[in-house]
Amino acid sequence: MTVTIELRGNQTQVGVAHGGQRQGSGRTTGPWRTGPKLWQTVDGGVVEISGDEPTWLRIAQGGAEALTTAPDLEGATAVRLTEVEGGGGQPGLKPMAPMTPMKPLKPLGQD
């Protein structure tokens, strides 16, 4: 399982890749006060973000979900994170090309 954690503006994006599948989720956290922490637990993992308010995300094979309270990390192992220059998460979306305007419709009853 590969976990990516990326700050984009005020959003923290967390991606989980496992077995060729990739799931992502984003939370508004504000800027990070300190770098994120990743904890390995019996059932997956927990990402801890120190932003405007502390935020925790539970990581499993199916993706990431927000927790409403601090999890019990007793017995969890801290995972060393590797910083990737320029970010290694999902690439940003490119804007769509403008749509071609529709031709005016003929009034009803005039063929």
TrEMBL record:
Annotated region described as Disordered, given as residue ranges: 1-38, 84-111
Residue stretches of biased makeup (Polar residues): 1-14
Protein name (Swiss-Prot/TrEMBL): Uncharacterized protein
Organism: Deinococcus gobiensis (strain DSM 21396 / JCM 16679 / CGMCC 1.7299 / I-0)
